[in-house]
Protein 1
Amino acid sequence: MTTTTPADLARATLRHDDHPFRGIALLIGATLCLATSDSLAKYLSATLPSIEIAWIRFVVFVLLLAPVAFGGDRAPLRSHRPVLQVFRALALVVSSLLFITALRYLPIAEASATSFVAPLFVTALSIVVLGEVVGAHRWAATLVGLCGVLIVVRPGTAAFDPASILPIASAFAWAITLVMTRMISGADRIVTTMAYSAVVGLVALSALVPFVWVTPSWRDLLLGVGVGVASSVGHWLVVLAFRHADASVLAPFSYVQLVWVTVIGFVVFAELPDLWTFVGAAFIIGSGLYTAHRERRRRAKPVPAEPNPTA
């Protein structure tokens, strides 16, 4: 799963300087990298199993992260919440596997549009796991997003493909990852969370990949490395974007990724989404943007001062 939704961006808390156009440019570059990673994974899925593609991706992730995470004095895997870190990393692996598998069977634009429903699941999980109170406005946005998913997937019709469940399940696993990230926030350093994602993901996939192993050609290996590099660079650019602009400025531009995958899907795979996919995507985008808007308003709302007992 390599999408970055507006609701995710709205929760970012990185300190930044005030260069919004630079931040927007970086985020658009990030969406292109993430779309490229997904497209390469789809292309590679014709010759390699999903587990092996994900394994190559995590190998590249570890190799790129190692100089940063393991080059300092502090142990990157020293965590105050190691069990939660492990479960978060496993949820990330499941999300990646489900999405790569979806790309094998579905048009890339349809899979990507459906995967943007993660904020709906985050809203529901925040109530159960984090004890948050969700108001009527955010629930309404969630229902609109759900309608968008139903329009794209169209269950009960001849256009329904059972594989459409895969990106939805991937989005749910990604939402679990996001909620656990919020639970970890403040307890561990970012580099610790990244290190757990890389190491646990690689160990888990290394245990699975022997059962499905297909010896890759040099072409397959290069494409797999491309998946890992494009994905890692994309997420790195997202972090850099937040150093230059507010989440409120960047949030709408995360959906540029849908434009990239639509163009790539048409040029490379001769896939053109039908009208209903565009309509459903519009519902999902509107829901995500409104959810991000409500999240920003909620976080910007001033906390009432405690009464002074001596006044």
Note: The chain has 13 helices and no strands.
Protein 2
Amino acid sequence: MEFLQTIKEFFTQGGPFMYLILLIGVFALLVTFERIWTLSRANVNSNHFMARIQSFLITNNTEEAIKFCNSASDKPLARIIKNGLIRANKGEMEVVHALEVTSLEEIPSIQRRSG
């Protein structure tokens, strides 16, 4: 209870600027939680994800790999890999180009919410 009394005294002594500081602090806390929530939604267990993709490709089952990517379509890694898989039968350069282009599209959306 003494702690709350001390905070009340700080507010009384600080005047109206204390409310501005409190408002800025609450805003900063909300932004921090929003960034953590956004980044956690974009996160995927990449080791598990890539192992599953690899198992589909070893059995030459590209369609199942694409379906697996569709099941995680809200994840940037899944969208990148999916665009490479779609072009798997068009040659290595086409696949690499698709991966690069999709990466360049996905990275700014991740950075915008984390920087």
Note: Helices lie at 2-14, 16-42, 46-58, 62-71, 76-86, 92-112.
Protein 3
Amino acid sequence: MNVSSLSIKNPVPAILLFSWLTLLGLFAFRTLGIQAYPTVDLPVIMVSATQEGMAPAQLEQEVARKIENAIAPLSRLRHIRTVIVDGTVSFVVEFFIDKDVEVALSEIRNAVESIRPELPAEMTSPPVVSKLTTAGSALLGFTVESNSMDVSDLVDNELSRAMLGVHGVGKFQRIGGIDREVRVDLDPVRMTALGVSAAEVSQQLKRIQLNSSGGRAGVGASVQGFRTLAAATRTEDLAALTIPLADGRTVHLADIASVRDGHADRSSIALIDGKPVIGFEVTRSKGSMEVDVANAVNAALEKFRAAHPEVTIQEVYNSYQPTYDNYQGSMDLL
């Protein structure tokens, strides 16, 4: 059958067909996302184990090698990358592209769980196994300034909730700044005079500084829940805590230590033109479009600026603008 002759003799069906295909094509084109590369669900699994105070050499011998030996026999394994620093060991396990991500995640989780009894007993928290949930590097970077608020606390509490609530944001990370820390500096002379050790103080603080459930009780026709609130909310309350000792005596924490509300030691710093700044980075989740996420983040920041006029937020870099410029150039060429 000659399709051309049939279409000439019966033009209406052909015209309707091509009109319908044209409308479908225009609709599909408008719904296409804008990003540099297609989204690929890579079979990459992350494993991390943490134990404060453990040296890298000890972590390598007692943790890293045991986990590596447990993961190495897995099928379709391509590469294992291990990074060890003070108190933390991290693994990036990469499989071949045809490996199912969920199967890889389950196999690694089972392998790590099988050698859990062989890990050091002082590691109270088990290794964390997770799959890669973000796409690429940071999408946007901002600096934050304020003269009336603690900027680090603002970024950690207020801005993080606002940004993580945006559809398509997979990761939020503060850059620079310092963390709040309540410091308990023990006095060795007083502790020696009272026969108190640092281990006893630490153990008793963990037992006392705790909120726990108090059960339930009937109040009239209803049931009321109770809680035991023992955690101190101020440094003065913490300093006034009475610590029981092993021999039956008690001592106030303020008698053997100075308690102050301060900041943790700075472990990183962010600089712009040599000036220290506090900022944050936003990374999109896998499957979301770069330009769509960037527009949504900027819209959320506009609302945040309106609600907090005392805060100044400035964009310092982004990775989506070259992609959008290329898209606009292609549209102009068409």
Note: The first helix runs from residue 3 to 9.
